[in-house]
Design goal:
about 30% helix, about 20% strand, 2 domains, globular, about 200 residues, OB fold (Dihydrolipoamide Acetyltransferase, E2P), five-stranded mixed β-barrel, alpha+beta
C-alpha cells in the first residue's frame, strides 16, 4: 500500500511541475505569444488592453494613409527595422474600410480616428508579432500611443475596424474579436452607420 501511495505522490508532483512550467512559458513576454498575461490592464468598457511590451520601439508618425496604415520613421534603427528611411506600417489584426479607389462607408471616420490617436509628428511605439512583412512591402506591427493606448484595440472597440485573423500574427486576435463583438452589439461606429 505504501508503494502505491508513494507512486501516486510522485505522479501528482510531476504533474504539478509540468503545469507550473507550462504557465511560466506562457507568461513570458515575447512577440507572438498567444494572449497577454498579467501585463494586461482592464479597459473601462471593454476587454483588457495589453500594456506596451518592454521590447516595443519608438517611431515618429509621418502620415496616416487610412484607418489601418501609417508612414513612420524609426527614431533609432534596431534589429527589427534597420533603416532610418520612412516605412509604411500596416496594423496587425485589424481591417478598416477602404478610402480608395472608392470611398467605403466609414473609411473617412476610421482614418480621422487613427490620425487623432497618432497625429503627425507624434511618437508611436511598435512591437512585432511573428511576421513583420506583408505582400505589399509594408511592415506589420501592433502599435501603442505615447500614453500607452493599444491602437489596434482602440480602432476595433470604436467600431472603426473589424478584427481579422492573418496567421501567423494572431497574438491579440481573440482580444480584438471580443472587442468587435461588443462594438457590433452596441452599434458603435461602422456597425451602426453602414449596411
Amino acid at each position: 500500500m505504501r508503494r502505491g501511495v508513494w507512486a501516486a505522490a510522485v505522479v501528482l508532483g510531476a504533474a504539478a511541475l509540468i503545469a507550473v512550467a507550462i504557465w511560466v512559458s506562457q507568461s513570458i513576454d515575447e512577440p507572438g505569444d498567444a494572449a497577454p498575461g498579467p501585463s494586461a490592464t482592464a479597459a473601462p468598457d471593454g476587454p483588457a488592453a495589453p500594456e506596451r511590451p518592454a521590447a516595443a520601439f519608438p517611431l515618429t508618425v509621418l502620415y496616416v494613409y487610412d484607418g489601418d496604415t501609417i508612414q513612420a520613421r524609426m527614431q533609432q534603427p534596431n534589429d527589427v527595422v534597420t533603416t532610418a528611411n520612412p516605412i509604411r506600417i500596416r496594423l496587425i489584426g485589424v481591417d478598416t474600410p477602404e478610402g480608395t479607389p472608392t470611398t467605403e462607408c466609414w473609411a473617412d471616420e476610421a482614418r480621422a480616428h487613427l490620425a487623432q490617436l497618432l497625429p503627425e509628428g507624434s511618437t508611436v511605439w511598435a512591437a512585432p508579432d511573428r511576421d513583420t512583412w506583408d505582400d505589399y512591402d509594408r511592415r506589420l506591427f501592433n502599435l501603442w500611443t505615447e500614453n500607452g493606448a493599444f491602437v489596434n484595440l482602440e480602432l476595433v472597440a470604436a467600431g472603426d475596424a473589424e478584427a481579422i485573423r492573418v496567421r501567423p500574427n494572431v497574438a491579440f486576435y481573440d482580444l480584438l474579436a471580443s472587442a468587435q463583438a461588443e462594438a457590433e452589439a452596441s452599434g458603435a461606429g461602422r456597425w451602426g452607420a453602414c449596411d
